[in-house]
């Protein structure tokens, strides 16, 4: 089971993504850290070369998955299916800040991350004028089965009469399959206490990341996060079956490239290398 120490290896992406989202107008400038700027500029030549040859870019990947997750969450909130959100490994994602501004007291948004990252997020969120009784940042150990920093403990403090969404953007591809399926089972177990549950995440499939360009891109991503990028499942059917086995009632893996007519970022070649999970529980 991944430890907190191993989980910290993902933190460079928090700074990089925070800078990318600010560049695209999705975030408050406070979330564009100096670390993110350094990482973005360091990776820029390699990504520019890939783009020149019509290859995938990390920036395109991040934006494509983020746009689709946002879209699915917006639909669920507007339809009255969920009004509470827990974003695990939220990092410097602007989603909590943006959704809290848009929906106000209509939602309760909980951003959760390792203690060090959570403390940094609280500091930057305060600079952005965010944070309220309906938008908070808490400490979490995403792989803990019990304890005050576990997912179940955080969910216990929410309204069990309202729908809940849980998001793990940019997390599960950096951990082995056993850890991921264990997390999925705990999420499905948490949903059992709520009328409706919606799980959103990104996922890379082995069958869609073959070929020289795709393999090179995955290796570059592994180097960037200082750890292995795991390709847990061969195809969509295998992944959806694993989600159903974990306890979700339905599971769909969306192609971000199918959203290209609505979001220009989804036309990047990298949008074909990632899927967005939409798994549901309850009515």
CATH class: Alpha Beta
Strand order of the largest sheet: 3-2-1-4-5-7-6
Number of domains: 1
Helix content: 40-55%
Distance between the termini: 32 Å
Description:
- With 283 residues, the chain is of the alpha/beta class.
- It has a single domain (4-282), classed as Rossmann fold (3-Layer(aba) Sandwich), CATH 3.40.50.150.
- Helices cover 44% and strands 15% of the residues.
- It has ten helices and seven strands.
- Strands 3-2-1-4-5-7-6 form a seven-stranded mixed β-sheet, sandwiched between helices.
- Helix 8 (177-191) links the parallel strand 4 and strand 5.
- Helix 2 packs across helix 3 and helix 8 (177-191) crosses helix 10 (236-246).
- The protein is globular.
- It starts with a helix and ends with a strand.
- The relative contact order is 0.16.
- Mean pLDDT is 86; it is low at 1-10.
